[in-house]
Specification:
Helix content is 69%, strand content 1%. The protein has 27 helices and two strands.
Length: 609
């Protein structure tokens, strides 16, 4: 009997028990994963005696052994084992790492990953990589289990509810992690309000910091912040897959319209492929950006080990691309040893720009298949939304840089040559709309520049990007609508296309709700932060700047974040959360459903202006 015939016999033998046994293994895997993740977080978040540490490590080692067993059971029960291994190559790679680590620790009493990271000067990274591995395997088993049960598939949730809930879960986990004693350099745990503020700021990729990120957090705490920025930046995209997964039975017409406000329909209906594509591209950009930043580090910069340099590069690459705004050094990119590293500024600015462009814009512009098609057919152009977003984005950068040069030429730009002044101005113009990283002292800028930055932060970046604000497309449509009214046109026209009244109403709604939210929250800050207004050198513009920065998830600050009261921090937490989710998603989630709109009242003329 040949191998193929033997496999057929095995398939017939295991056919009746396959579904039941695999489902049992998946359920047990979920429980093992949860227990193991809890043990890992406890082990690395708290300080225990040696005996307790050994017990926790034993549980983790058992879970790894179970994962290896589960993987081989899946291969055994699959009717095409070779194809299974090819299809699930990444999971197989993770299991292979577990096998190698198991052999290494049992026969040589050493962990290879831990040893590798220790040699690079990143001792904590080895332990954190194990936590990542556990989370990955847990997610794999979770989605596999869902494929064989109707419990999750039949959950019918509003897309906005799913979107909001996903952020709340990440923020809650981030807050719990940051409150662990091992995450901070101070004795005891972080205050809840400060941990929540930091978690919201990182998840909503804002960058406002209630404490000094460089000195207050340990390497583990900074790693958690970096992970939160990555998850927060990707969450706009991963929402599509999560929505499709939790609503597998199908969406209604009304829900389709809501989904289209978050992402394109093509991205939604091919959500899994889009998620993999986005994750791969973002990871590639961040790794290349981290490498470039690492290569631009000079010997004079105060980094003790190669591990510190690598972590600095990766952290700031993720922070820039996801428009996170956090930094692992005091004063960020304006630190004494970084403020004149203009090549590094260019790399960071490019990462910020790519993140604020948005994935749909990048796919439409740089997709190889679309580029080849446009070369063959020059009359084919990118989508109108892409061209509008890119033109508005670039125009705002040029205007912002020009106004910055005009106002700061003889003040904050003194001592720089012509090229250096232009790089600094471009960096502030690019970063002000989304990233929160700065290479100039914001507090020393003129009132005119502060006002200009407030406007840029309010506008933000492109739709479906890591940036906040009302978005460039919204701003462009409102300007075009005003121009159309002035010219006496009946319709809003963009590049040979007519914009429907529904889209214009949504754009105006975003403008009004964003502007109204910022005004209300700034007023509340004036009530809760009188001590800041009474401080010499501080005034109303500091509070307005801070609030707009929070609501637009930009992260720039004039330096008052650490001076805020708990009430003021709560207001900014609310602002960052609402600003990241978008006012439309909040409205859709909580607005009362109207049974019908198939009616009209008699028309009436109301005087305007």
């Amino acid at each position: 009997m040949d191998i193929k015939g033997l496999r057929e016999r095995i398939n017939l033998f295991i056919y009746n028990s396959k579904i039941t046994n695999l489902k049992r293994f998946k359920v047990v895997s979920i429980l093992v994963s949860l227990i193991s993740i809890g043990c890992l977080l406890t082990l690395h978040g708290f300080n225990f005696d040696a005996e307790t540490n050994r017990m926790l490590q034993a549980v983790v080692e058992f879970s790894f052994g179970f994962y290896v067993l589960h993987y081989f059971v899946k291969i055994f029960y699959d009717f095409s084992p070779v194809q299974f291994v090819k299809t699930n190559w990444f999971e197989g790679s993770m299991v292979f790492i577990l096998l190698v680590e198991g052999i290494s620790v049992n026969f040589f009493d050493t962990l290879l990953l831990q040893t590798l990271f220790e040699n690079l000067g990143m001792a904590s990274a080895g332990a954190l990589s194990v936590v990542f591995l556990q989370f990955y395997l847990f997610i794999v088993v979770f989605f596999e289990l869902s494929d064989n049960t109707n419990l999750i598939s039949n959950i019918k949730l509003h897309p906005s509810t799913i979107f909001i809930s996903s952020f709340l879960v990440i923020i809650g986990l981030g807050t719990a992690l940051l409150m662990m004693p091992a995450m901070t350099t101070v004795e005891g745990s972080m205050r809840f309000i400060d941990a929540l503020f930091t978690s919201v700021s990182a998840t909503c990729v804002t960058g406002l910091a209630a404490v000094d990120t460089a000195n207050f957090f340990t390497y583990k705490g900074q790693f958690v912040i970096m992970l939160l920025m990555k998850l927060g930046g990707l969450n706009i995209v991963s929402f599509a897959y999560l929505a499709a997964f939790l609503n597998r039975v199908g969406f209604g017409v009304k829900q389709d319209e809501i989904i289209e406000d978050f992402i394109t329909k093509d991205a939604f209906y091919n959500a899994k492929g889009m998620l993999i594509k986005v994750f791969s591209i973002s990871l590639f950009i961040e790794l290349v950006g981290g490498l470039l930043i690492y290569l631009l580090i000079t010997p004079e910069m105060p980094f003790e080990t190669e591990g510190d340099k690598i972590f600095f590069g990766i952290f700031h690459s993720i922070s820039a691309f996801n428009n996170g705004g956090f930094s692992t050094v005091v004063d960020g990119m304006y630190a004494e040893f970084l403020r004149h590293s203009y090549l590094m500024h260019c790399v960071v600015a490019l990462l910020i720009l790519l993140g604020a462009f948005g994935f749909t814009v990048m796919f439409d512009l740089f997709s190889p298949s679309l580029m080849r098609e446009r070369l063959r057919h020059p009359w084919k152009q990118p989508q109108v939304s892409t061209r509008l977003a890119v033109r508005t984005h670039i125009l705002l950068i040029i205007i912002g840089a020009g106004l910055y040069l005009l106002a700061e030429w003889d003040t904050t730009l003194v001592g720089q040559n012509f090229v250096e002044k232009n790089i600094t101005a471009l960096f502030q113009s690019i970063s002000a709309r989304s990233a929160g990283l700065n290479t100039a002292d914001v507090h020393s800028m003129s009132t005119a520049t502060i006002m200009m930055l407030v406007i840029l932060m309010f506008i933000g970046g492109n739709t479906f990007s890591t940036a906040g604000g009302i978005k460039t497309s919204t701003f462009a449509l409102i300007c075009i609508n005003a121009y159309s009214i002035i010219r006496g046109k009946k319709n809003v026209e963009v590049m040979g296309r007519t914009i429907t009244p529904d889209i214009m109403l949504k754009a105006l709604t975003v403008l009004v709700t964003f502007g109204g939210g910022m005004i209300i929250c700034t007023y509340l800050l004036c009530l809760t932060e009188p001590h800041i207004l009474a401080t010499e050198g501080r005034n109303f513009m500091d509070l307005l700047f801070e609030e707009v920065s929070a609501f637009s998830t930009c992260g720039l600050s004039t330096g008052i974040t650490s001076m805020l009261s708990d009430s003021g921090k709560t207001i900014l937490i609310f602002s960052m959360f609402i600003g990241r989710l978008g006012t439309l998603s909040i409205i859709f989630a909580f607005a009362k459903k109207i049974l019908t709109t198939n009616y009209t009242y008699p028309t009436e003329h109301i005087m305007v202006g």
